[in-house]
Design a protein that fits this description.
It contains 14 helices and two strands, in the order H-H-E-E-H-H-H-H-H-H-H-H-H-H-H-H. The chain is mostly helical. The protein folds into two domains: about 1-130; about 155-394, no CATH class. Helix 3 packs antiparallel against helix 10 (about 245-270). The radius of gyration is 20 Å and the shape is globular. The termini are far apart. About 50% of the residues are buried.
């Protein structure tokens, strides 16, 4: 039982940090920085510890029953191989983004508010990954989404507000598709527990209902993942957001809210039929191609990286859409790889913007002499992504 109690901490700690920062951040100097750093460090440690702990169990699954109520009647949180992998990815990126933000956010007006929203976004992503209840997946998805809407607009300039409004509208449309899909599944199965829902669907003839629900989820989570043709919000949100948030959006948010949710629903609940896998491969293929073509005409560094993220998500979805063990492994491996190197590139773009005063690739070059560390880390990240355009500025 003691091992199970680690699971709710992934929600409790960032939620508690957000609450505490909002209360004391303005009154005690540097308290918000200390609290967010402590929270991020604890989350990274617990993520690694949970992965190690999971290996000690024969079925590689831990279930925490909230309030002691057994599923499917009670709400539960589940830690398995996929969720522990995503927790490490999310909290590793969040840890380094937190360290970067301690000094980077000095240029903005209200660091306690930023760290409150940042902690809520991490709480939402962690909760979505570990929940075993489909409705709570939607709740945590909305917590992370709403926090990200506010963070994109954190600069409060016209460009940021416009991008945030567009992002919020597109995100609300996606959430509507997802909510309607959950409602249809609940009406058909009379349960919201994912494992119980999968059990019922395995023997109950669903007919066209499941096909309709599958389309809704493909549109909803495809928009959250910024897959082509649901990608329009991402190229605007990235250039407008602070570099820290661009790193989180591209590094982990689109993967937790989009890719992870697609995997969990189609492989664990609805079933990964040949038709769904073919659609995933198609969406992944066109994302790889279209986003790269659109990136060729971009001179804004962050906008270029945003289109590149869409293309890279296409690689992840294509691998998962193959439906084979090697394809899924390759997709998940690239998910982690992209989370790390793309977060680094966006953090470096913030450093370049701060030093040069512009992100236009036509106006900046030869920064390696004045920014040797950024040059080296950009080279490493660019080589990791086979993406060389960033080196133009150095």
């Amino acid at each position: 039982m003691a091992a199970m109690t680690i699971i709710p901490l992934f929600v409790i700690i960032p939620l508690g940090a957000a609450f505490t920062i909002s209360l004391v951040g303005k009154f005690i100097k540097r308290s918000s920085e200390a609290l967010i750093l402590l929270s991020s460090t604890l989350m990274l440690y617990l993520s690694i510890h949970a992965r190690i702990l999971l290996n000690n169990f024969a079925d590689k699954t831990l279930v925490y029953k909230i309030g002691g109520w057994a599923p499917p009647f009670g709400i539960c949180m589940v830690l398995d191989g996929l969720s522990s992998f995503m927790l490490i990815t999310i909290n590793l990126v969040a840890f380094f983004v937190t360290i970067y933000s301690l000094s980077y956010m000095e240029r903005y007006t209200d660091k306690p508010k930023f760290f409150t929203l940042f902690s809520l976004m991490v709480c939402g992503m962690n909760g979505l990954v570990i929940t075993g209840d489909l409705f709570n997946l939607f709740v945590f998805l909305e917590i992370a989404s709403i926090a990200s809407y506010a963070l994109v607009a954190f600069g409060t300039e016209a460009e940021e507000l416009e991008a945030s409004f567009k992002y919020a509208i597109m995100g609300s449309v996606a959430s509507s598709f997802i909510f309607i899909g959950i409602a249809f599944l609940y009406g058909f199965t009379s349960t919201l527990n994912m494992a119980d829902m999968a059990r019922i669907l395995s023997y109950k003839q669903a007919g066209y209902i499941i096909q309709f629900v599958g389309v809704l989820f493909l549109m909803g989570f495809g928009l959250k993942a910024a897959l082509v043709p649901f990608h329009a919000w991402l190229p605007d949100a990235h250039p407008s957001a602070p570099a820290s948030i661009s790193a989180m959006l591209s590094g982990v948010l689109i993967k937790a809210l989009g890719v992870y949710s697609l995997i969990r629903i189609f492989f664990n609940i609805i079933g990964s039929t040949a038709n769904y896998l073919q659609i995933l491969m198609f969406l992944g293929g066109i994302s790889m191609l279209v986003a790269v073509i659109l990136a060729l005409s971009q001179w804004d560094l962050k906008r270029l990286l945003a289109y590149h993220s869409i293309s890279q998500i296409g690689y992840v979805i294509l691998g998962i859409g193959l439906g084979t063990p090697l394809g899924i492994f390759g997709g998940l491996f690239h998910l982690f790889n992209h989370s790390v190197f793309k977060s680094l590139l966006f953090l470096n773009s913030g450093a370049i913007d701060y030093a040069a005063g512009t992100r236009d690739l036509r106006e900046i070059w030869g920064l390696a002499r004045s920014m040797p560390v950024t040059a080296k880390t950009s080279m490493i990240a660019s080589m990791s992504s086979r993406h060389t355009a960033v080196q133009w500025v150095f």
